[in-house]
Structure formats: structure tokens, C-alpha cells
Amino acid sequence: MTRRVRAGVAIAVAVLLCGPLAACSNSADGSPEPAISVSDSEGSLVIGEGSELPADWPTDIPAPEGLLLQSVVTADGSTIALYLGPGNASVIAQEVTTELVANGYTAQGSTSAGFETTTTYTKGSTSVDVSVSQTGTDASITLTVRSGQ
User: Fold this and answer.
1) Cα-flanking dihedrals φ and ψ of residue 51, to 5°?
2) What distance in Å separates the CA atoms of residue 133 and residue 39, rounded to the nearest whole number?
3) What's the total number of domains in the chain?
4) At 116, phi and psi to the nearest 5?
5) Which helix (H) or strand (E) holds 46?
6) Which of 2, 32, 51, 127 has the most CB atoms around its CB within 10 Å?
7) What is the span of the domain harbouring residue 55?
8) DSSP element (H, E) containing 99
């Protein structure tokens, strides 16, 4: 199984687990900690509210406004960040798109599969896939970042 496929499987698992795990909190101050955190020499997987972007996440890639970061997968030179929450996915994605373009990213094309649309943006050697889906009143925005490829 390729690493990209494994990362996709990890995201699918994250989507299935995020709902029940999002409210978990293990710290004394009540701040949420990730429900699952696994890493090895090939990458890492963090699932649950309290997930954090890696230190090398490009500062010019915006977080979707109003959505919570629910999982981060890092493998094979890519980082996948999944944001979930109530809201209009199209409006939130447009805000992300506007900021990406303002930061010098150029749209390369879009694909749709079922209820999800993915648009790829590039700037230099950095590529960002913005995947958007809406389920009822909940929005899902996934940002996949590949640098130096």
C-alpha cells in the first residue's frame, strides 16, 4: 500500500472517529488533548480536538475560519489537516481560497467526487489541495500540503 493511500485511509479513519473523540479532554486545566497520537520514522497521525499543526506548516496557508482542527497526518513529505464544524463549507472554502491567492498561490484546477470538491493551488515548490464537503449543517475542509515536490 502506498504512503499516499495509507494517508488517505488515515484521514477516512479520522473522519469516522472525530465525532466521538472530539470532546475528549485529559489535561488538568480542561484543555483538550488529542484523543489519538501516533508517530514513527515514516510520519505521524494525531486525531481529536487539540490536534496541532506541525512546526514546519507554511505560515501563508490559512486555517479555515470557525472550524476546529480535528486531525493531522504527516507522511511522505505531505501534511494533511482536517477541519470540521458547523458552517457553510463553500463560504469557508472561499475565504481560504481568497487568502491563498492573496498570499501568492495560483489555482491549478479542481476535481469533484460525490459531495467533495478539491482544488489544487501552487506557489513555488509548495502545493496545497483544498478539499471541501458539506454534510447537513457541518462543513469539512481538508488541507493537504506538499513542499519541495
Assistant:
1) -60, 150
2) 28
3) 1
4) -115, 140
5) strand 43-47
6) 51
7) 3-147
8) helix 89-102
C-alpha cell at 74: 504527516
Q: Do residues 116 and 12 touch, judged by C-beta distance below 8 A?
A: no
| Best CA proximity match to 107, nearest among 123, 87, 85, 124 | 123
The answer to whether residues 33 and 24 touch, using CB atoms and an 8 Å cutoff, is yes
What are 99-123's pLDDT values in tens digits?
999 999 999 999 998 889 999 999 9
Give pTM, 2 decimals: 0.73
Chain center to CA of 52: 11
Residue 100: enclosing H or E segment and its boundaries? helix 89-102
DSSP 78-140: EEEEEEEEES-HHHHHHHHHHHHHHTT-EEEEEEEETTEEEEEEEETTEEEEEEEEEETTEEE
* Confidence bin at 49 (pLDDT 50/70/90): low
Residue type, 107: A
- Residue 67 C-alpha cell reads as 472550524
| CATH code of 28's domain | 3.30.310
Which pLDDT score is estimated for 147?
Answer: 86
C-alpha cell at 143: 488541507
